[in-house]
Amino acid sequence: MKNIKYPKHSILVVAILLTWIKTYVVYQTSFDIKIENSMQQLILFINPLSFLLVAYGVSLFFKSVKARNRYLLITSSILAFILYANVAFYRFFSDFITLPVLFQTNNFGDLGASAAESIYITDVFYFIDVIVLFVAMKWLPNAKEVAIVKPAIRRAYFVLAAAVLFLNLGLAETERPQLLTRSFDRELLVKNIGTYNYHLYDIYIQSKSHAQRALADGSELVEVNNYVRANQAEPNYEVFGTAEGKNLIVVSLESMQSFVVNEEMNGEVITPFMNQLTKDKDTYYFPNFYHQTGLGKTSDSEFLVENGLYPLGGGAVFFTHSGNTYNSMSERLSEEGYFTNVMHANNKSFWNRDMMYNALNVEKFYDVDSYNIEDGDAVNWGLKDIPFFEQSVNHMAEMQQPFYSRLITLTNHYPFHLEEQDQFIPEYDSNSGTLNRYFQTVRYMDESVKNLFEDLKEKGLYEDSIIVMYGDHYGISENHNEAMSKYLGKEITPFESAQLQRVPMFIHIPGSNKGEVVEEVSGQIDIRPTIMHLLGVETSKDMQLGADIFSEDHEEFVVFRDGRFVTDEVVYAGNVCYDKETGEETDAEACAPYIDRAIEELGYSDEIINGDLLRFYDEKTGNLLTDEATETK
Ligand code: GP9
Ligand code: MN
For residues 301 and 312, what is the distance between their CA atoms, to the nearest angstrom? Predict the structure, then answer.
């Protein structure tokens, strides 16, 4: 042994290798990370490395061996502890730790109890790398030598660390475009950037929103409140309360756009059931209804529906502001005696839903674990919509009534794959496979909605329910403009792109006999007040930015998250003002008065969210709470 010459910094290499290998083994054994291909496997393997190179690499700055070794051991112990904390947390919550969990006091009870339950004596194995490192320090002769490093070597080392990081991020970007700007899911983050980098990212996101929150003192609310009150719409008492006391079923139609409704594709009807609904005597259909989502897509539409506020311009508000105070529709309806729940057969941590639903006071989340997924029942992103609806209605049949269930569908999601037996119409024939398949998955969605109605009837729930369905966001992005243009038979100008932001919206009230096509220009932000008023719940004190579409005061002015907007006369897109009727460019004057208002409206919404201003607001009385009054809150 004695005569083997080890490189000077072998102890550093040992420390890195130990934690790296252990982390990879823990990924495989202690978390349920779904790996679909060898690229994902490779990313999973390399993802701890960049962080470890930097964290342990700091030891190269130490002059004394004792201090260096102490640093390596402490770092190794801290990392082992962080990883282990995630393992213990995962055993109980099937999720990775995120900062708000640690800081939300109401979680403490849960956390303490579950932590105790999920710790075993064999868990010392999670610290095996620390122990081996300690032994190696005693055993490796060089570990005791003084090791001064030349700055050039240090520089090369950190350049290497950066290269590894960029390689990792580059591979992750190919696997999951926009991962860091949109967040998506904690599991995806850990899978792609690694658990240690994930925690840094989490700290960054959380501290950014924390800082903005800390600066707000409630005084901003005066102006916001004035704006909200000035733009508030009185209910239309002819429809107010039409669905009073009924169960509320809200269905998010994944990636469903309006351009397929009442249309054909190569002679095939795309949405036969929904077409019928547009003419149904119990259904309101809104053909000029727009989505207003941003990067948070489905979750942004949920945010709009629940709060009547806009999502954020950057990142998914479900991730960045799940610790805020909200006055959600779920909370309001809970107070009215409703049992509030969300049904979605996906990971509960996707879009940080598990955290956000707590903040929104959703009483129960039926996530993937509440569904039975038999062989052949899953395609694309998971459980198919037909069995999803069937099982969801079974859950409803067991519920206390009235209930408010929000159902989030999944099959009509990019990349729109479907098994042969579920393809009711052939593919389209453009140069975009995505658009070609989209028609088929939309046709499947139509079938599944038909089944939902039948399931509800079968369980005797139909008559006592109001069913609201809306498209959550676009399905076909602008990357497919050429194919889109072939289908629509016209060029896709910025005007057309804005018009393609139309998503279908249906409000079906069995037995109401009030059905009609409502041409009013409206958007997802209007869903909350519209539904609440149909249920007979006043919203005059709510801090919401939308308006009841049935109200005389409802203004035909829909603002998109990026500042584009649509009125009954104009469409403003790509800094150009278009005539709504002709789609031709028109006098900028026609748009001018709305441009600032669109920015103002988005700005107030952002202020509410970034400053967490609803903590300074009492929605029962409509009072703004001063600093002093909230100190004890
Ligand atoms: C994920 C589902 C799809 O749970 O809601 O999200 P999306 O990608 O459409 O935002
Ligand atoms: Mn979606």
Answer: 11
Name the residue at shortest CA distance from atom 9 of ligand 1.
298
Q: Under DSSP, is residue 233 helix (H, G, I), strand (E, B) or coil?
A: coil
408 lines ligand 1 (CB under 6 A): yes
CA distance 111 to 260: 48
The response to whether residue 350 sits with its C-beta less than 6 Å from ligand 1 reads yes
Instruction: Spell out the residues 6+ positions from residue 231 whose beta carbon is closer than 8 angstroms to its own.
Output: 545, 547, 555
Residue ranges in the chain whose pLDDT is less than 70: 1-7, 103-117, 142-147, 626-633
| Catalytic (active-site) positions | 298
Q: Are the beta carbons of 201 and 352 closer than 8 angstroms? A: no
Q: What is the pLDDT of residues 191-225, one digit of tens each?
A: 999 999 999 999 998 888 888 899 998 899 999 99
Please report, as a single letter, which amino acid is at residue 67. A
* DSSP 8-state symbol, 569: S
CA–CA gap between residue 256 and residue 246 (Å, rounded): 26
For residue 393 the two structure tokens come to 């209605």
**Beta-bridge partners for 366:** 343
pLDDT at 181: 83
Per-residue model confidence as pLDDT tens digits over 12-59? 999 999 999 999 999 999 999 989 899 999 999 999 999 999 999 999
Mean pLDDT, all residues of the chain: 93
Task: Return the pLDDT at 546.
Answer: 96
| Ligand 1 midpoint to CA 299 (Å) | 7
Contacts of 435 by beta carbon, 8 Å cutoff, 6+ apart? 428, 476, 480, 483, 484, 487
pLDDT value, residue 1:
46
Whether the CA torsion 450, 455, 460, 465 is positive or negative: it is negative
DSSP per-residue letters across 358-374: HHTT-SEEE-GGGS---
* Residue of 381, 412, 445, 473 best suited for mutating to test ligand 1, as the one with most atoms within 8 Å of CB: 381
* Residue 609 contacts residue 321 (beta carbons within 8 Å): yes
Closest CA to 245 of 537, 513, 507: 537
CB within 5 A of ion ligand 2: which residues?
Answer: 254, 297-298, 472
Q: Report the half-sphere exposure of 392 (CA within 13 A, side-chain side).
A: 34
Tokens standing for residue 14: 């040992």
pLDDT of residue 93: 76
Burial of 504 (0-12, 13-18, 19+ CB in 10 A): buried
Question: Helices H, strands E: what count in the chain?
Answer: 24, 20
Identify which of 32, 157, 12 has the alpha carbon closest to the alpha carbon of residue 73.
Answer: 12
How many of the other CB atoms lie within 10 Å of CB of 493? Answer: 19
Q: In angstroms, what CA-CA distances link 419 with 137, 377, 378, 448, 555? A: 57, 10, 10, 15, 44
